[in-house]
Amino acid sequence: MLYKNTSIEVVVGIIHNSNNEVFIAKRQKNQFMAGYWELPGGKVEPGEDHLSAIKRELFEETGITVKDCKLVQKIQHIYPEKTINLSVYSVDDYLSEPLGSEGQEITWSSADKFKNFKLLPTMWRIIHKFSLPKFYWITPDNHQSDIVINECKKQLTNGVKFIQLRSKTHLDHTYIKKINRLCKKNQAKLILNTPNKTFNEPCDGWHLTSLELMSLKERPVIEEKLIGASTHNIDEALHAENISADYISLSSIEKTLTHPDSIPLGWEDASGIIEKCNLPVFLLGGMKKNLVEKALSIGAQGVAGIRDI
């Protein structure tokens, strides 16, 4: 007998405390996916708007009164039994201390300790989203030398928390491990963008070229690791969403020294793509750190670059 996969609208809230920890709860024995940890929230009732639903659900589940919140992410996850359309809200202001009002087990956790919990599949995508920075640095091409190692040290000292190790040629495993150790020492993430990826290299995730992206039909790695992708148009951006990438870079926004003859997307077209894509988007091409606020104003996650980040 065939069962129809039903679609359900669900809202969840990210609640932080003063230690920058996140409130999570364990699903109870009588619930779907019992024993998994999740953000508090629940189903949107018929005729109810999403904003009313998140306020109601958080009050019922945790006892807090939401004063201010905003939609930060939309995720669709398909289980065999049902399709979940998940709207994720950042709870920016609330009254009372959250509790397990329905008898559920609760705790506060920092992002680096989430790996110790049995999380719902959608949780890692949410964690990746709110752990992404507003800017990240891409390494220059002169690899296997002290130049890049020293520049990595400089960037990390200056507070960069996200580095894309990019190379058009194969990199020695020992070299990758050396940069990965530097990043770990500075609580930064290393994303690898090299040819012939095995998805077993020592790093926090991988960045796909647009060709690699379009050749894939599904996400190539487990949810705990990050997957990003280079995109240049709406089709590539939507395909990245379809394979459950965690973020994309969109280029080129402005003219660059490396591609002076190419026609850039421009800010208006970039804004249109961001509006249609439910992934965090980093703008690339002619970007500088002082353009972060402009990027945020059109809905981007932030900016990325080699020279001026």
What does this structure look like?
The chain is of the alpha/beta class and 309 residues long. The chain has 8 helices and 15 strands. The strands form 3 sheets. The protein has an 8-stranded parallel barrel. Strand 9, helix 4 (173-185) and strand 10 (189-193) form a beta-alpha-beta unit. The radius of gyration is 20 Å and the shape is globular. The N and C termini lie far apart (57 Å). The relative contact order is 0.10. The mean pLDDT is 91.
Structural topology:
Layout: E1 6-15, E2 22-26, E3 37-38, E4 41-43, H1 50-62, E5 65-78, E6 82-95, E7 106-109, H2 121-131, E8 135-138, H3 146-157, E9 162-166, H4 173-185, E10 189-193, E11 205-208, H5 210-215, E12 226-231, H6 234-242, E13 247-250, H7 266-276, E14 281-284, H8 292-297, E15 302-305
Parallel strand pairs: 1-6, 8-9, 8-15, 9-10, 10-11, 11-12, 12-13, 13-14, 14-15
Antiparallel strand pairs: 1-4, 2-3, 2-7, 5-6
Helix pairs in contact: 3-4
